[in-house]
Amino acid sequence: MHKGPNNEVFDPRRHLMVTKTLKVKVYVGNGWHLDFSQTHFDSFSPPDFYTKVYIVGVPSDCAKYKTEIKNDEWIPVWDEEFTFGMTVPELAILRIEVREYDRSDKDDFGGQTCLPVSELRTGFRSVALYDHKGEKYTSVRLLMRFQFESNLAPA
């Protein structure tokens, strides 16, 4: 990493200005009914999915949000947007995890993925999800939109 203007070394714990804002919109999920048995998540009803969206990076950038729980839906539609202000987007990872809400036990795992923010491009994306072992599900996908805004003043 490069030294700062006063020859200082980068300190990730130091308070920094937000340089970039990432808006993440989670529209819909699909494919669980193809990759899982009808009774995998709930024995007597369709699953109750929700999505967690995290930024993992320097301490000031770390944040997490959660969509509403969509009850009894194999194809949940969330249509929710979350905004992340980032000070060091080059080191940030977007983590997406889908869980199935369970009233009486631990929530069931429905898939996850991690995407480097520096690799994201603005627009609509079909985001594949992976199991606990990192194996890609055949059909499970989220329809999402990524949008960036620069918070730096024009030169």
From TrEMBL:
Q: Which UniProt keywords apply?
A: Cell membrane, Hydrolase, Lipid degradation, Lipid metabolism, Membrane, Transducer
One GO cellular component, as annotated: plasma membrane
> Top-level EC class, please?
hydrolase
User: What is a biological process (GO) this protein takes part in?
Assistant: lipid catabolic process
Reaction catalysis annotation: a 1,2-diacyl-sn-glycero-3-phospho-(1D-myo-inositol-4,5-bisphosphate) + H2O = 1D-myo-inositol 1,4,5-trisphosphate + a 1,2-diacyl-sn-glycerol + H(+)
Q: What is the protein's membrane topology class?
A: Peripheral membrane protein
- Which InterPro entries does the entry mention? C2_dom, C2_domain_sf, PI-PLC_fam
- State the compartments where it is located: Cell membrane
Name what cofactor the protein needs.
Ca(2+)
The record ties this protein, via Pfam families, to: C2
Provide the protein name: phosphoinositide phospholipase C
